[in-house]
Amino acid sequence: MTARALPLADVRILDLTQVWAGPKCTQILADLGAEVVKVESPRRTDPARGTTNLLGLERYPDRDRGTRPHDRSGYFNAMNRNKLGGNLDLRTPEGLAQCRRLVQRADVVVDNFSAGVMDRLGLGPDVLLELNPRLVVVSMSGFGSYGPDSRFLAWAETIEAVSGLPAVTGYEDGPPMFTFQAASDPVAGIFGAAAVLTALRQARSTGAGLFVDLAQLEALVSLTGPGLLDAAMNHRSPERIGNAHPDLAPHGCYPARDPDTWVTIAVRDDAEWARFADLVGLHHDEFATLDGRRRHRHRLDDLIGAWTTERTAADVQATLQAAGIPAGAVLNVGDVVADPHVRARELFQPIGHSEVGEYPYYYPVGARFRDRRRFRAAKPAPAFGEDNAAFLGDVLGLDAEQIDAMYRAGVTSAEPLEAVLVEAASVEPPSTSSADSREILR
Amino acid sequence: MAALTGLRVLDLTRRVAGPYAGQLFAEYGADVVKVEALDGDPARRQGPFPGDRPDPEASALFLYLNLGKRSVAVDVTDPDGAALVRRIAATADVVLEDFRPGRAADLGLDHERLAAGNERLVYCALSNFGQDGPYRDHEATEITFQAMSGFMAGSGDPAREPLWVPLYLAQQLAGAFAYITTLAAEHAVRLTGTGTYIDLSVHEAMMEIQDLMITAYFYSGSVRRRLGHRRDTNHPSSILPCRDGHVAILVVFPRDFAELMRLAGREDLANDPRMRSGPDRARHADEIDAALRPWLREHTADEIYRLCQERRIPVSVPLTPEQVLVSPQLTTRGFFRTVDHPTAGKLTHPGPPFRIGDHTGVTRAPRLGAHTDEVLGGVGVDRATRDDLRRRGVIA
Asked: Please, what is the angle between helix B301-310 and helix B254-263, to 10°?
């Protein structure tokens, strides 16, 4: 392996993940150079393609689903770049047999199915480790493989609700609130990548494979650590206090001059307060101490708001940052993409795709290694069936006759077969109950 | 044997992001030496504290972020102190630092200097906004990252100020990315023999969990608005008030919605073609909320939970941290562990984000400077020298 190869170039990952949490894990690893082989079912493609559920139009180029929506989903295309795509019907003996061959040729297998699904497919961790004793198996179910809730249908919202995060989030006079985009999925994906790398190191050191039973709930709860310790130490749970902070004052989100523009300000100590008070003109006695600022924080926030509302968010940010005070404008995604700092850091990679053409995608790995050319994206997300020849021929090493037979038998397919499942009587129905369709989504 | 046994990490970071990365290394078995200033990591002065009594050895924040590390107290601004750190770095596989961009070089602790005698070194520099760019020297706390990354703009009620999430979200995620990137680079060192430099920005970590939203913007120009408890892709997918608290109800499939409407006594809406898809229901959120309101007002969270579960409608009850501590699912999984704390006594402590093998993990955060002698002795600084350095206030 040369020094120019990417860090994980010697790692092959069999990727059975779907939707967001699992694909985010394997996306991180793919961007770091791992060879990620993503296997979908031709009869149940990754729901991020929008084939089995309706995605909002904003996910599609110019809000147009087109004639091949399963290849046009920005959701899928963002999560699955740098992965080689293949499809096998794992509910057929031949599909399962080929998947087992893949397991033998992989270093890592990752899934984010509900607890029990991999077992029912004949791909439980014991089976996988028997097929390949050096294998790293990472399962990322919602609640983990065991426990009273392990068979509970896990959705990002339900996971987030029981993590404790919403209970502490919200306006002072308001109800608990979810994060706006389901935090548990990307968080689980990030810790999933950490789990793969940690387990890989152990496997390489000991020569023995292992199974990591990651629970998305536990990954999310890890981010609430200090609050849990406070609850354990002091038998209390925090009140919701909007944008205020339990220790710092002032701390909040203040209106700026233009409609619906805002700027956040946090003052960390008395020295910072002195500089801030000078700039804003706030020399009232009651604010001289942190204790006073906390006790009178509503009045303090009102006075700060009166100052910020006369200025643009950018001005407030620049003025306060020049004095070394943490101030940051509230930016929406369009603002972020146009932000001069974000542009200077070169965080977006244009990737060309056979169906949607070229778009930029968030791609931070090059900035992290300060080597943007070396860490460029190697390939787009797979249009369905696009990589199947390479998958069947190169990765699985099958010859033309074998491949042909698999297509004819519907074990693999050039196009998604979801519609065919409903209409063709000869197609074998799924062996499990209808509840499985939900579980496959997770 | 733990996964990272034998990996030596020098942790020069403070507060949250860097120490969390160091904590992950320690959790999975690495030998993590934490260098603190003589008055300690500032996190020691930050609560919560047991009984709200500040104590540098009892900060829950410090405790959570520094389990299993060894602590060496060194004044790195003193040239002799920096020299000591260089001696430790010479034996390290990984260095984590979070100095202001540019400062490491002033101190003689930059990558170039440390890698000179240690070409396998993986050097990870964490910073607020990265090592370069217009915001390179910007100050930030957690809310700053949530605001400037795009995260806050979508959170909160449309008619009110945007809302933050009062957790160390950006900073802990940055620590996780530092861990991932460093471990990946370390993986390569085993094969190439050469280390690397990593430039890890907290701001970029927070942007990364929003990469789907960024893609939607590039594909269709869409910018998400604040919608309070609603989503524009589905309804309900919300935390809703009920008689004695709140419940989280999520409709995924049309049959979920039909069942929910039947529970609410609104058979007329159960199969309403206007409400078939998620986006359709989002458009009719007012009507749906009005339909649910009487039923929600009448029933407790527990009742609603039971009724929804019986009909397989996705539902859960938002838990407080105190309730999370006694969650049967988490306790059955052994997620919490008992930590023996000198001030707080026996403490229920959250476990790691995932468990590897049988390792029991780490349970002690170090007292300030508890390992100064042990670590410095281990790199050849003899007793007499250490005593002298102590007298001069270079180490403690």
From this structure: 130
Report which of A85, A82, A75, A79 is spatially closest to residue A379, judged by C-alpha positions.
A82
DSSP secondary structure code for residue A137 in this structure: E
The answer to whether A344 and A47 are in contact (CB under 8 A) is no
Which token pair is A369?
Answer: 């290694």
Q: Report the residue of A31, A65, A136, A228 to disrupt the B interface, i.e. the one with the largest count of B CBs within 10 Å.
A: A228
Q: Count of alpha carbons within 13 Å of B132, Cβ hemisphere only? A: 10
Question: Which of the following is catalytic: A185, A247, A258, A404?
Answer: A185
- Confirm or reject contact between B183 and chain A (CB < 8 A): yes
Q: Give the torsion sign (CA, B11, B15, B17, B22).
A: positive
A258 tagged catalytic: no
B105 to A383, B100, B102, B108, B114: CA distances (angstroms) = 47, 10, 6, 5, 10
Q: Which of B162, B187, B109 is nearest to A331 (CA)?
A: B162
Tokens read off for A266 = 């946090």
Q: What is the pLDDT along chain A (442 residues), one digit of tens a residue?
A: 566 799 999 999 999 999 999 999 999 999 999 999 999 999 999 999 988 667 889 999 999 999 999 999 999 999 999 999 999 999 999 999 999 999 999 999 999 999 999 999 999 999 999 999 999 999 999 999 999 988 877 789 999 999 999 999 999 989 999 988 889 999 999 999 999 999 999 999 999 999 999 999 999 999 998 899 999 999 999 999 999 999 999 999 999 999 999 999 999 999 999 999 999 999 999 999 999 999 999 999 999 999 999 999 999 999 999 999 999 999 999 999 999 999 999 999 999 999 999 999 999 999 999 999 999 999 999 999 999 999 999 999 999 999 999 999 999 999 998 753 222 222 222 222 222 222 222 3
Name every residue whose Cβ is closer than 8 Å to that of residue B36 and which is 6 or more positions away in sequence. Answer: B14, B71, B72, B73, B74, B368, B369
List CB contacts of B364: < 8 A, sequence separation 6 or more. Answer: B67, B68, B339, B340
User: How many whole angstroms separate alpha carbon B78 and alpha carbon B390?
Assistant: 12
Residues of chain A with Cβ-Cβ distance to B321 below 8 Å are 164, 167-168, 224, 227-228, 230-231, 237-238
The SS3 assignment for A33 reads coil
Half-sphere exposure of A334 (CA within 13 A, CB side): 7
- Locate A423 and state its tokens: 């209409």
Q: Cβ–Cβ of A161/B317 closer than 8 Å?
A: yes
Distance, in Å, from the CA atom of A43 to the CA atom of B127, rounded to the nearest integer, reads 46
| Residue given tokens 């290694």 in the structure block | A369
Q: How far apart are CA B21 and CA A227, in angstroms?
A: 19
A155–B250 C-beta distance less than 8 A:
yes
CB of B356 within 8 Å of any CB in chain A? yes
> From edge to edge, which strands make up the β-sheet containing A327-329?
A251-255, A262-266, A327-329
The amino acid occupying position B151 is F
- In A235-378, which ranges are continuous DSSP H helix? 270-280, 290-295, 297-308, 313-322, 333-338, 340-344, 365-369
The distance of B391 to chain A (nearest Cα, Å) reads 30
Closest CA to B190 of A4, A192, A374, A1: A1
Residue B254 structure tokens: 């049309």
Prediction pTM value: 0.95
Rg (CA), chain B: 26
Q: Chain A contacts of B354, Cβ < 8 Å?
A: 191-192, 194-195, 198, 212-215, 218-219
In chain B the first and final C-alpha atoms are separated, in Å, by: 32
Matching residue, tokens 């707080």? B344
B338 touches chain A (CB under 8 A): no
> Which residue of chain A is at minimal alpha-carbon distance from B199?
A368
